[in-house]
Fold this protein.
Amino acid sequence: MELKEAIIKANQGNEITKIWTDSISSVMAVLDPHQLIRDIQSLLTQNRNILVRWIKAHAGYRGNEEADTLAKKAITEGVVMKSLNPRCELKQHLQELFLKQSQNLWNNVNAGRSVHKVLKTVNLKPVFWTREEILFVTGYGPFPSFLNRFHLSDSDLRRLAH
């Protein structure tokens, strides 16, 4: 039954879809003449981009273990599971979560405050800074205050300014 639902969902897209199941009986049942099996076979012949494959159960495959957990939860708690979104929507959702968590970390971490003053927002687009700009913004490099802080020089221009 779950195999049929997975095939119906996969049939809605145009991507090649591999459906991995740890139920060898589901894979073997595709040859069975019963109505459910004929329905599955019909769906599979309508879309050649769907492949049904077997995966060993309880072998530590993360996605399979999570699917088993969700299936058991649905059976015991009667939870109705929302159907999976297309890959592009999942990718966008994960990217948004990543950016939100990264921004939260960037706002609350103590390190990198000199860079934070210039780059307040986490972004996936690279910032093309020259070496000199990076050294200037971070305060690292051949500056008297930096050299003095790491005991690489006795001179500190900040002391001279006072």
In short: Strands lie at 17-21, 50-54.
